[in-house]
Amino acid sequence: MFRELLSVSGVGASTSRIVLSSMSASHLRQVIATxxxxxxxxxxxxxxxxxxxxxxxxxxKMKKGMVLTEINPSKQYNTESNEALSALLTLGFARAxxxxxxxxxxxxLESNSKVEDLIKVALSHL
Length: 126
Known about the structure:
By secondary structure, this protein is mainly alpha-helical. It has helices spanning 2-6, 13-22, 25-34, 37-41, 48-71, 79-90, 95-108, 115-125.
């Protein structure tokens, strides 16, 4: 998402960082895909024109991405799963086995579980 935001004219690294620290990447995708300019304007430093430019430039890409994740939900991870995957990769586990373990762990845990719990259960599957 950071790179996608950088591709928008008038949006630099600092603005992209602020946007992504204000909302999760998945929420930002949803905001852009639905054309919710008002939510983007709530981010500090984003005005009406910049919010509109972000939506106009990235809306088609976000809609395509949302369709792809609906078709293949096994590749769709929430923020907690992404963080857990990153932790397992940092520990040296192979991506394929780490993804499989996280998928199994997320099935056995509640949907609103913490990253730490997800990592613990995923480690038990490895």
